[in-house]
Write a structure and sequence with these properties.
The protein is an alpha+beta fold and 503 residues long. It is built from 15 helices and 21 strands. Strands 8, 12, 13, 16, 17, 18, 19, 20 and 21 form a 9-stranded mixed sheet that branches. Helix 10 crosses helix 12. The protein is elongated and about 90 Å long. The model has no long low-confidence stretch (mean pLDDT 94).
């Protein structure tokens, strides 16, 4: 355990003094009657009717203290807002008044009972008649610096090291209301997505997180072990194969919002543990899913932001449907001049990439080289909402082939703000075709591709009972939250992001 600072030792001494007085600095319950916002509303209501301010008991974290001889003004903050407290020697007596001044510190939680009034400056205030410690803060919160620039108050982070903000998210939230608002907005975003899907007849379900066979995405899984069953299990990388089993079971519209886990690199838009929305619709194809997607995201923006327009990293973005649509082939050709269909082998495509100064990974297959062209040349430029359509079959083993081009599948990815937001297919429902693709993926795995799909015999059995034609969709909640809150890093929208150990 790290050594205590001087301030922490001082606070610990106050804690011991409080206990010596027979006072519990961490009592088992509070007697709060109003949040700070409710208290202010109650006063305004009474004031409008010409009545005396009501008596309330409020509680919160002590944010400021101004001692002025025999009177003291303070502010407390709870989850709804702030309110001013007025302590007066004549109301409390010398012992209680001195107890507050001597033993309470910024960051402590307290409750205060008294009647509301309005000060000469017009601020609604509690005239404290009784107060009590609810929780003594032994460590002082980091200090947020403020500066007025052109009439605006600019707040500077209390943490000099941004990683420390993530490591101590509790302190980050306690000191930065704008950070708390990010996660409130995230919660409203998820609620809006649920409402949109529920209103359209979707059923929310839960599928296994621990899976005997992973699948549904191209990613390396985390592996764990069940001791009693003597069985290796995988943390899911996708919900897809289980959700599509439910279509076989005669549910026509299903969705899940939950955690996926991928044992891959960490970046500004990747975290090993992340939140995903997936839905599947029977009797629909990727064109239907595209229309549903743009409608859903525009609806969510209206519910969360009050507008279909938002600003992301200096770009004004309009989410109003219809969104731009272009094929993967034309998107890559327009961006770098390579028509990947003219380079049907890995070596040919790699040579064309080298001619652009883009050195391909020697372990990448032809399909992964195509995907790298998309990531490198196309994705950063797709600021306005755009659907990129029709992907090579060998990088999309769960999608249905295009009837007029069996080398490609009916797949789209949605891009906004220069990053991928969602991925969707016309889902493959032919069990024989699916089995053959699993076999091909198995060969890729044997050749060293750890992200290839393994054979899932139970999923194939489900398909053999008959799966209706359907369209499927997956979207990262974290990335959509980044867009809606104008954050450039996924760590800003995950409460407790994964971090490397301290060195």
């Amino acid at each position: 355990m790290r050594p205590l600072s001087d301030l922490e030792r001082q606070r610990l001494a106050k804690l011991e003094r409080i206990r010596a007085q027979g006072i519990d600095p961490y009592p088992p319950r509070s007697h709060r009657t109003h949040t700070t916002t409710e208290a202010i509303a109650a006063f305004l209501s009474a004031e409008a009717e010409g009545q005396e301010g009501p008596e309330v008991t409020v509680a919160g974290r002590l944010r400021s203290v101004r001692v002025m001889g025999k009177i003291t003004f303070a502010h407390i903050e709870d989850g709804s807002g702030k309110i001013q407290l007025f302590f007066r020697l004549n109301d409390l007596g010398q012992e209680r008044y001195d107890h507050f001044k001597r033993d309470f510190d910024l960051g402590d939680f307290l409750e205060a009972q008294g009647r509301l009034f309005r000060t000469r400056t017009g601020e609604i205030t509690v005239q404290v008649q009784r107060f009590a410690m609810l929780a003594k803060a032994l460590s002082p919160l980091p200090v947020v610096k403020e500066q007025v620039v052109d009439g605006k108050v600019i707040r500077y982070s209390a943490f000099s090291d941004v990683e420390e903000r993530y490591r101590q998210r509790y302190a980050d939230l306690a000191t930065n209301p704008e950070v708390r608002e990010v996660f409130r907005k995230r919660a409203r975003l998820i609620a809006a997505l649920r409402q949109f899907l529920d209103e359209r007849g979707f059923l929310e379900v839960e599928t296994p997180i621990l899976q005997p066979v992973y699948g549904g995405a191209a990613a390396r899984p985390f592996i764990t072990h069940h001791n009693q069953l003597h069985q290796d299990l995988y943390l899911r990388i996708s919900f897809e194969l289980y959700l599509k089993r439910l279509l076989v079971g005669m549910y026509e519209r299903v969705y899940e919002i939950g955690r996926d886990f991928r044992n891959e690199g960490v970046s500004f838009k990747h975290n090993p543990e992340f939140t995903q929305l997936e839905f599947y619709v029977a009797y629909a194809d990727y064109n239907d899913v595209m229309a549903l997607t743009e409608e859903m995201i525009a609806y969510t923006a209206e519910q969360v932001l009050g507008s279909r327009r938002l600003t992301y990293q200096g770009h004004e973005i309009d989410l109003t449907p219809p969104w731009t649509r272009l094929t993967l082939r034309e998107a890559i050709y327009n961006a770098c001049g390579i028509d990947y269909t003219e380079h049907p082998t890995r070596d040919s495509l790699a040579e064309a990439m080298r001619a652009l100064g883009h050195e391909p990974s020697p372990s990448s297959s032809w399909g992964k080289l195509v995907d790298s062209l998309l990531s490198h040349y196309v994705e950063p430029s797709l600021i306005q909402p755009t659907f990129v359509l029709d992907y090579p079959v060998d990088i999309t083993p769960l999608a249905k082939r295009k009837p007029d081009d069996p080398t490609h599948v009916e797949r789209f990815e949605g891009f906004i703000g220069g990053m991928e937001i969602c991925n969707a297919f016309t889902e493959l429902n032919d069990p024989l075709d699916q089995e053959q693709r699993f076999i091909e993926q198995g060969r890729a795995y044997d050749a060293g591709d750890e992200e290839a799909h393994p054979m899932d015999e139970d999923y194939l059995q489900a398909m053999r009972y008959g799966m209706p034609p359907n369209g499927g969709f997956g979207m990262g909640i974290d990335r959509l939250t980044m867009l809606f809150t104008d954050k450039a890093s996924i760590r800003e929208v995950i409460l407790f992001p994964h971090l490397r150990p301290r060195t």
